[in-house]
Amino acid sequence: MSKYENFDVNLLQYDKVYFYDYTKSYARAKRYKDARKYTLTFSKSESNLKECDQIRFLGGVNIAVVFKNDLPKKYKNIKVIDGDKSDLEMLKYKGVIIGLRAKGDAKKDTSGFVVTNY
User: Fold this and answer.
1) Comparing C-alpha atoms, which of 73, 75, 56 is closest to residue 116?
2) What CA dihedral angle connects 78, 67, 73 and 55, to 10 degrees?
3) How confident is the model at residue 59 (pLDDT cuts 50, 70, 90)?
4) Who's near 114: CB < 8 A, 6+ residues apart?
5) Comparing C-alpha atoms, which of 68, 100, 70 is closest to residue 82?
6) How far are the Cα atoms of 10, 30, 35, 93, 104 from residue 59, in angstroms, in the given order?
7) Is the pLDDT of residue 86 over 50?
8) Which of these, 17, 41, 58, 85, is most buried using a 10 Å CB contact count?
9) Which residues of 49-69 are buried (b: 16+ CB within 10 A; e: fewer)?
10) What percent of the chain has pLDDT over 90?
């Protein structure tokens, strides 16, 4: 998958062309938080909790979080939306948690990647 930075900027002239992606890079999330046609969702992992807390205070950046069971209504006092509905959910909201349910091997995760206490 190519990064947004590598796409031809001429594509941005089309009204119905939008770009979205996930990142674990705080710097990228911060750089593109106000981009007009590009939505970048920060991905929580087992090793970036500090960055997740920092992202919360940037405003306007979504955070993808994998939950063990059903999705909570809020996580860390931030509204959770159902990211399993569609990849396009992230385009509808700003500054929310994109909640994902653990699937496959993630159901057995003990690293901290999957959130179990909520």
Assistant:
1) 75
2) 10
3) confident
4) 66, 67, 68, 102, 106, 107
5) 100
6) 28, 9, 13, 12, 32
7) yes
8) 41
9) eebbeebbeeeebbbbbbbee
10) 61
